[in-house]
Design goal:
This protein is mainly alpha-helical. The protein folds into two domains: 62 residues, Arc Repressor Mutant, subunit A (Orthogonal Bundle); 31 residues, no CATH class. It is built from six helices and two strands, in the order αααββααα. It has a two-stranded antiparallel sheet with strand order 1-2. The longest helix has 17 residues. The radius of gyration is 19 Å and the shape is elongated.
């Protein structure tokens, strides 16, 4: 799955949050300074080419766009890619790194183990 740029991710976040939108409507959810309509349209086309979004044609010049990939699906794919790229596919090494960097506490690890045991 394509790793998104910050601008592409912002567009995807708007679609995940608000559902089907036209480009004009989408622009209302983008941070200031809002890019030009043509710039947003270019990003939307790129995302569509990569299979991240799809459109529904309402008329010859009016389309509504929505996410073709769920947020969770994208996040999981990026996590897996990063674990493969930086930790040789080892989730143990990944979690170990989080613990070493104090990004995850022992209590959080215990909670994670409890969640896994309940599954």
């Amino acid at each position: 799955m394509k790793k998104l740029t910050d601008k592409e991710l912002t567009i995807m976040e708007a679609l995940w949050e608000h559902g089907e939108l036209s480009i004009r409507d989408l622009m209302n959810y983008l941070p200031e300074p809002t890019p030009h309509f043509n710039t947003v349209a270019t990003y939307v086309r790129r995302l569509e080419v990569h299979g991240m979004i799809r459109h529904r044609e309402l008329s010859a010049k009016f389309y509504l766009y929505n996410a073709a990939v769920a947020r969770e699906q994208y996040v999981n794919a990026i996590h897996k890619e990063n674990v493969n790229k930086f930790f040789g596919g080892s989730y143990m090494d990944f979690i170990s790194n989080l613990v070493k960097e104090h990004d995850v506490s022992i209590d959080e690890l215990k909670e994670l183990i409890r969640m896994i045991e309940e599954e």
